[in-house]
Amino acid sequence: NDARAAITIRDLLANVSGLAEPPFSEKPWSAAYRMFMGSHIDRLVLGVPAAEPPRTRYVFNHVNSQILHVILTRATGKTYVEFIRDRMWAPLGNGAAQVRLDREGGSARVICCMQTQPRSWARIAQMLLDGGKVGDTQVLSADWIAQATTPGALNPNAGFHVQIGQPAPRRNTNARAQQTRATEPFAAPDV
């Protein structure tokens, strides 16, 4: 019953939701810190207000990713780990992976830090390049892969949470992160 009612799933996928992203802070009571270290992360992100109308500006926003987690788990009745394992991870032949939970038995913290071996990431990239196929098996629909890798209207280098060209500059108020951020472009525009 507020401005967020205009936000679509597609807006969340394309990072054009207009939702506010809490500014980075190392203060344990801040919303940004609680996103990365606190419990009940889904409840936290569902309370994030709109900062501007949707489809106004591209902003890589961790809130979008976590709200997509809420939608996925509610729609499927599965945990994030169960869904990813059954629908993508196992068909890819990927091995062990780890996600962080916001508390024991809680929600996956999808905003950061899925840990696995480089070969698993490479298999995901190859599946994207192969239109969602792994060998003769269609793991994700070709139509979905095409949509996910189509340049966005507000950022031609990004699809649906898929970087498809040179990264857009990211807002980051953390001075240490700004100092260590790579400034060199990718070796090739299609990396």
Notes on the protein architecture:
With 191 residues, the chain is mainly alpha-helical. Helix content is 37%, strand content 4%. It is built from 8 helices and 4 strands; from the N terminus they run αααααββαββαα. The strands form 2 sheets. It has a two-stranded antiparallel ribbon. Strands 3-4 form a two-stranded antiparallel ribbon. β3 (133-134) and β4 (137-138) form a beta hairpin. The longest helix has 15 residues, at 62-76. The model is unreliable at 172-182 (pLDDT under 50).
Describe the structure concisely for a colleague.
This protein is mainly α.
Q: Proportion of β residues?
A: under 5%
- How would you state the average pLDDT, rounded? 87
State the low-pLDDT regions, or none: 172-182
How do the helices and strands follow one another from N- to C-terminus?
A: HHHHHEEHEEHH
Helix content: 25-40%
First-to-last CA distance: 41 Å
Gyration radius, rounded: 17 Å
Number of strands: 4
Biggest β-sheet description: 2 strands, antiparallel
Q: Give, in spatial order, the strands making up the sheet with the most strands.
A: 1-2
- How many helical stretches? 8
Task: Give me the secondary-structure category.
Answer: mainly alpha
Globally, the shape reads globular
